[in-house]
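Supplementary notes for students who missed Thursday's class. We covered one full example, reproduced here. Read the sequence, then the structure, then the short commentary at the end.
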Amino acid sequence: MKKLLLFATVLLWFAGTARSQDKEAILKVLHTQEQAWNAGDVDRFMEGYLKSDSLMFVGSSGPTYGYETVKANYKKNYPGKAGMGKLTFNIKKVELLSGDTAFVMGAFHLKRDQDEPKGHFTLIFKKFQDGWKIISDHSS
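Structure (token representation):
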């Protein structure tokens, strides 16, 4: 009985450590995106997204699909460093739904010379061999 209890305790500790490491990895993706955006680098910002036709982005004009479409929309709607401004994320929740899927909810604030758009987002992340990637983004 003692061995079983010890085994269960060790197993729970490892599971908790793995979950903590996954949450940290997801937060690192978002921090890297923030830095890339603030450097005016949409291509590096997009590295946080799954490079796939199945990537889904939902914004004020409805859903769009595909990595290249999302990237083209970012470049069109936020031209140059001035159009991109300074992005700040405020992450409210990171919840692991399974060993390879996570839900993230947060707020964004974009400071530009002419305005300061802000809103909220929900993201679905999936873990791949090369790390955590956003597979669905709903920003409003």
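Commentary. Strands lie at 56-59, 62-65, 86-96, 101-111, 118-128, 131-139. Residues 4-15 have pLDDT under 50 and may be disordered. If anything here is unclear, bring it to office hours.
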